[in-house]
């Protein structure tokens, strides 16, 4: 048993990675229960916290992105927009540290959050920016994953859905 006031030594990177994988497993499960939705949100927050203890700016950005994606999925407009903007701000502030797909995904998340907020026109602009950046992604697999995610964005019946199908 640890003494009162003793500091625990944790492997924050390991814990963050495990929690991230747990959040992704829940995110990809389309038949989540309300309890699993709560768990998904909690593990995404916990993953980000652990990345903030031991990760890089890239880990921080990706943790914010995951939280934004979870909030979009749960229909939480304000939180989704908050994390999307945080993701974009961090991506822009540390451009040189980010991978090419991090830039595209920052716009992908902002497009999702903007669409959730009911701003279809702005979402279309952001979606197109994500797609243009996606064309610049090195590595066919990473590019394919991004475009699969873009096609899966649940756009309303607008011109945006036509654009999504054509990519």
Structural commentary:
This protein is mainly α. The chain has a domain at 56-166: Alpha Horseshoe (Serine Threonine Protein Phosphatase 5, Tetratricopeptide repeat). Helices cover 75% and strands 0% of the residues. It has eight helices and no strands. α3 (57-73) packs parallel to α5 (100-116), α5 (100-116) runs antiparallel to α6 and α6 (120-135) runs antiparallel to α7 (140-151). Mean pLDDT is 90; it is low at 157-167.
Largest pleated sheet: none
**Head-to-tail CA distance between termini:** 57 Å
Stretches where pLDDT is under 50 for at least 5 consecutive residues are 157-167
- The radius of gyration over CA amounts to 17 Å
Tell me the CATH superfamily of the domain at 56-166: Tetratricopeptide repeat domain
Based on secondary structure, the structural category is mainly alpha
Give me the count of strands: 0
Beta-strand fraction estimate? under 5%
